[in-house]
Amino acid sequence: MIPQSFQYESPGSLAEAISMLQQYGEDAKILSGGHSLIPMMKLRFATPEYLIDINNIPGLSYIREENGTLKIGGLTREAELEHSDLLKQHFPIFADVTKLIADPQVRNMGTIGGNLAHGDAANDHPAVMMALHATVVATGPEGEREIPIDEFFYGFYMTALQHGDILTEIRIPMPPPGTGSAYHKMERKVGDYATAGVAVQITIGDNGVVTAAGIGLTNVNPVPLRAARSEQALIGKPLTEATINEAALYASEDCNPSSDLRGSEEYKRSIVATLVKRMIHQAVNRANNS
């Protein structure tokens, strides 16, 4: 199939793009990387009358640290995340996740902002943002507003972005010493949606006690899911096999996978438990070597 007819717009500024969104109303869609929207348009699951391409807007692609906060522009490509020295040094989880996203062609165009704005629990970045306790910046007619990641995903393909909003930035606290992070997903083949995925960031104090933890789960819930009970099972305790096993058990119990061609509900829960254990160990190894 091919998309229905639409009017293409290419604004040169953020203000112009927001004005177009207001002018065209619910009939307009934002195009950034396009790797989620275009396939939906070809299948006519999405039928916008106006397509607003924001790729020519300057100043929306960057990776930088400011005052203890990592800032990533909404138009930053997956390939830029994959090769950033700043991210490799402080957030190795980004190297984990980007190499698992589709293929180089997709990563050269796909954007982190589009990945999050799509609101798909099967995408990889939502779980990573959960683990990193990120904040999303939406820019709209009234200016900027910050949305904590736990308040961003509302339902199936639904986010806190309001009509006229554009996701312009992601903000992540820079990790303290003794922090490590890791992500992995099980997939049937390269480029497939995850059977299940787990993102972990963990901070270990000098006394060996966990001082902070973030765990996000991919594609085992209708919306991206924080494994909150698993985090609490770790925080304030020495990291032992018993506490790790407890965290893994809670994650497998608290997710809500559905049986499909990728596996049964029971199989997916077992994958979650296994990945939580492995990613905690990998994050801790990175913390110890940081």
TrEMBL record:
Q: Does the keyword Zinc apply?
A: no
Keywords (alphabetical) are: FAD, Flavoprotein, Oxidoreductase
The yes or no answer to whether the keyword Oxidoreductase is present is yes
Name the InterPro entries for this protein.
CO_DH_flav_C (IPR005107), CO_DH_flav_C_dom_sf (IPR036683), Diverse_Substr_Oxidored (IPR051312), FAD-bd_PCMH (IPR016166), FAD-bd_PCMH-like_sf (IPR036318), FAD-bd_PCMH_sub1 (IPR016167), FAD-bd_PCMH_sub2 (IPR016169), Mopterin_DH_FAD-bd (IPR002346)
Ranges for domain FAD-binding PCMH-type come to 1-177
PANTHER family cross-referenced by the UniProt entry: XANTHINE DEHYDROGENASE SUBUNIT C-RELATED
Descriptive protein name: Xanthine dehydrogenase family protein subunit M
What organism is recorded for this protein?
Flavihumibacter fluminis
* Record lineage: Bacteria, Pseudomonadati, Bacteroidota, Chitinophagia, Chitinophagales
